[in-house]
Write a structure and sequence with these properties.
Length: 92
């Protein structure tokens, strides 16, 4: 394993552990609003993930809320998306 791969795996592990701890302590909620998702990951990406069915609205109290998204699922989809590595049109 190369150092770059190891550092990336370690970084992801620390991030996941931190997120889980913050959720358990109540600092972060299990769900986030669409506005928060747009802020963190970009409106076009979040809308595309919803349209593709990768992210679905969260269910609260037996009702589907279109404004809430499962935070953990959102972060998993964002981490698996490789669009961030694509070159901009000007650099192709």
């Amino acid at each position: 394993m190369k150092l770059k791969e190891f550092s990336q795996l370690l970084n992801e592990a620390v991030f996941e552990g931190t997120q889980k701890t913050l959720v358990k302590c109540g600092v972060l909620s299990d769900n986030c609003t669409k506005a928060e998702a747009y802020r963190f990951f970009g409106r076009s990406d979040v809308d595309r993930w919803i349209a593709e069915g990768l992210i679905t609205p969260a269910i609260k109290n037996g009702k589907v809320s279109k404004k809430c998204i499962d935070r953990i699922k959102l972060e998993q989809v964002a981490a698996s998306s490789n669009r961030i590595t694509y070159l901009p049109v000007a650099e192709r």
